[in-house]
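> @MW can you paste both from yesterday?
MW: sure, first one:
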Amino acid sequence: MDFSPLPRDPHAFQQSATAEEIEAICQRAFGSTVRVASAVELGGGMYNTTYRIVADGLAEPVILRVAPAPEHQFASERELMRNEYASVPYLSPIAGIVPRVLFADWSQEITGRDWIVQSHLTGVPAPDRLGAYPRDLWPGFFAQLGAITARVHAVPGPHFGPVAGPGHCTWSAAVIASLHAIADDLGHLGLDAADVRKVADLAVEHHQVLDEITEPRLLTGDLWTVNTMLDSEAPKPVITGVLDLDRTLFGDPVADWTIRMACAKRDERTAFWDTYGPRDTTSAATWRALVYEARHLGAIRLERHRLHKDEGVRDTYSSLAGVLAQLT
C-alpha cells in the first residue's frame, strides 16, 4: 500500500489511522478480497481525519473519514459523524451533490473511533479553484450557494436540536442547551465561560422571543466555501459538491453558520440573497441573531483553543462582549 499520512504532532487533536487499520476498514466495508493500493490523507479539514482510497476491486476511489477518539470530543460536538449519518434522509433535496454513504461503522472495533466510507465527489475544493476566476464571476458561486441553502432550509424536522438528538420541543430549549454545553466545555478546558453563560441566562429570560420559531427546519451547520467542490474545467464557478455536513440541526434557519457567513461582508457574497430570499429584519429577528452570534463565538472559541490559536481565543472575548452589550 502507498500510505501517505500527514505529518502530525503526537499530541495533535487529529491523529492518523495506521496502514493496517485502513486495510482492515476497507476489507470490512468491501470484502476480504479488497486490497488497498493507496491511502492519501487529505488536508483542509480540522475535525475528522480524511483519506482518498484507491483499492484493487473498487471501480472508483472512495473517501474514508475517521472521527476523533471519543475521549477527545467536546460534549457540544459529540458524535458529529453519527449526526451526519442521521441527516442523510433529510438531505435528499441536494442528494446529487452530497457524498453517498457506502459503509459506516460505530463499533470502534478496528480503530477505537467511528468511521464512514463515502463516494468520491468530482471537482476540486472551492478554496483551491474559486480564486482562479475573475472576481466578477464570484457572485454566481454565491448565488448557487444561496439556492442550495434555501433547499436545505425548506426541509422540516421532527424536533429542535441536532438531527441525531437530543431533541427538544421548543427552539429556546435547544438554544439554551447548546449554550450550556459550550460553556461546560470551555469550563472543563479552564477557559472563562461567564459570557456564554450570561447569554444562556438572557435566552432563558427572553425565551418567548426564541420560541416565536415554532417550526424546526434543517440547518447545514457548517456550510460555506471551504465545504464546497467546484468543477475543475467550467468557464465559470459551478458547485459540484458539498461536504462535511456533520453539524446539521433542526431550528431557525437564521441560526445557520451559512447565514452568518453570508451576512459577514458586503462583497460578492451578497448574491447569496438573490437566490436564498430576503432576510427578516424585525427587532425580534435581530435579537435572535445576536444570540446565534454568541453561540457561534462560543464554538469558535473552542475550535481556536483546539488549534492552539491563543490570540484567536482572546479575540472571541472582545467580540462576545460587543454582542452582550447589544443583547442587554
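MW: second:
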Amino acid sequence: MVISKKPLHFIAALLVAFMPLVSSANPSNDSTAVEAHAVEATHESTEAHADASHSGSAHAEPTDIKSQVKAFTKHHVLDAHDFTFFSDNKEGKHYGFPLPIILWDNGFQIFSSSKFHHGEAVAESNGNYYVINHHDGKIYKTDATGTLTEDEKSGHPTNARPIDFSITKSVLFIMITAILMFFLFSSLARSYAKNGGIAKGAGRIFEPLVVYIRDEIAIPNIGEKHYKKYMSYLLTIFFFILFLNIFGLTPLGVNVTGNLTITFSLAILTFLITNFTANKNYWGHIFWMPGVPKLMRIVLAPIELLGIIIKPFSLMIRLYANIFAGHIVLMSIIGLMFIFKSWIGSSLSFGLSFVLSILEILVAFLQAYIFTMLSALYFGSANEEHHHEEAHH
C-alpha cells in the first residue's frame, strides 16, 4: 500500500480558490468553546453559575466581561434545540427559529422548542414537564417548578432523562449537508450522462476532487481490483466531512464535526465496512499470523485484535480533536478583543484570528482528506491478497 505525497499541494491550490468565499465570514464564528483555555480568566464565573445549577428555569448570567466570554463560548460549543442567529442580551431578545422536540417518555412527546423560551422556561407536554440544563444542553424531566436535583459528587443532574430524538442544530445541518450533496452530485452525474462524460453545471467544481480521491486515495491504497466497491463511501465521507467543516467556519455557529458523537458515528461506519468486507487473509493475519512461531502467534493475536478497535478510535479522536481545538483557539482569541478594550490589543487579536481563520480552512480540507485516506488504508488492508512467499513458512 502507498500513501500519496501529493495531497498538500492539491489542498493548497484549493484553498487559494475557495479562500475569498469563506475566510471573511469566520471572525464572527460562535460555534465552539473551551473551558480549559479560559480557566484562569474565568474563575470569577463559577460562583455565578453554581446557584443556577439547581433549577432549569433559573440561570444566573455572568456580569464581568471575562465570564461573559466564557459563557458565550461554552454555550456555543454545545448542540442546541433551537437555531439562534444572534441575541440582544440587553433587551433579552433572540433572533432565530425553533426546532422540533421529539422525546420518548412513555410514548412520543412532540412539541416546539419555543416552549423552553431559550432554556429559561419549563416545557409541558401531555402532563409531563421538561427543562433544558444550561450546563450540558440536555433535556431532563422535572416538575412544574423546573427543579433539578444534582449529585453531590459529580454535580450532574439526577433527574430522569427521556430518550431524545429531537432535530437539534447539528442534526439540521447534517440534513442540509445531505440534501446539498444529493443535488450537487446528482447534477454532476446527469451532466456526465448527457454530455458524453463532460461535467457541466455547479457539480463540475467538485469533479477534480472526485478524480483525485479515485486516483490518489482509493486506487493506490485499495488496489485496482477492489477500489470500486468502496468509492461511494469514500466520496460520501470526504464531502460530508468537508462541507460540515466549512459550515463550522461560518457565522452560523455550527460545530458538527467538533461533536464527539458525530465523529464516533463516522468512525463506526468505517469500522463496520472494514470488518464486514474483509477477506480470509485479513482475519488470518489477526488470529494466526503467518511467518512467526506458534507461541508468538498466541501473544500477537490479542494485540492485533485490539488494533481493530484502536483504528476507528483514532479516526474518531483525530477528527474531533483537530476541529474542536481549532475552534477553541479561534474563539478564545476573538474573545480577547472584548477583554483588551484597546485598539492595539483588539487589532492584534483581529489579525491573529484572521490568520487562524485561513489556517482553519486548510484544516477543514486536511481533516476530510485524512479521514478518507485512513479509511482507504483500512479497506486496503482488509482486502490484501495472500502473498505466495508466506505459504512457504
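> thanks! The first strand starts at residue 82 and ends at 88.
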